[in-house]
Amino acid sequence: MLAVLYVLLLSSLQSLASSSSSSSSPTYASRLSSLPSSSIYDVLKTHGLPMGLLPKGVKEFRFLESGQFEVHLNQACNAKFENELHYDQNISGMISYGQIGALSGISAQDLFLWFPVREIHVDVPSSGIIYFDVGVVSKQFSLSLFETPPDCMAVSSDNLKELVSEMVSEIKSEVLEDWIDQ
Q: What is any Pfam family matched here (predicted)?
């Protein structure tokens, strides 16, 4: 009799465990396996965003059902579009359909200044326009610029010194040209 109760209890526990693991709180692995493929680029496509928002060289990523994501690159890098984008080694934010909010780890260069990109969104996909919100301004770009993940030039301290030096030289020459024109 005790053996029968033991078997019934054991089978009840097994069925309870299997039903609770497939209920409302799926594991990270099952959340990823429900995606067409387990790449961050597929996550972007599934959410109506172009794959080229993130560069090549993603080492690992984490995407939660809530939309929260983290991307880890091998190293910080810069990519050139119409403007230059800087990607930190770690990027995070919240993905929902057509937008990435609470973004950190991406900066955009405009007029020799770097601005942190806080949000990226596509209002109407058929418009072919994507917007980058840098706080005070929202910059628009052609969606076609972001069709494929860009190559990204690694940014080391030597590269950074070179970039700053180049930017200072450009600013000096523009100031000098303006002064001569007056």
A: DUF538
**What is the tens place of the pLDDT at every residue in 92-146?**
999 999 999 999 999 999 888 999 999 999 988 899 999 999 988 899 999 999 9
Q: Which amino acid is at 42?
A: D
From the number of C-beta atoms within 10 Å of its C-beta (0-12, 13-18, 19+), residue 18 rates as: exposed
pTM for this one? 0.68
Polymer length in residues for the chain: 182
- What's the total number of domains in the chain? 1
Residue 47 falls within a domain, yes or no? yes
Which residues does 25 contact at the CB level (< 8 Å), separation at least 6?
A: none
Q: 151, 79 in Cβ contact below 8 A?
A: yes
Asked whether residue 93 is domain-assigned, the answer is yes
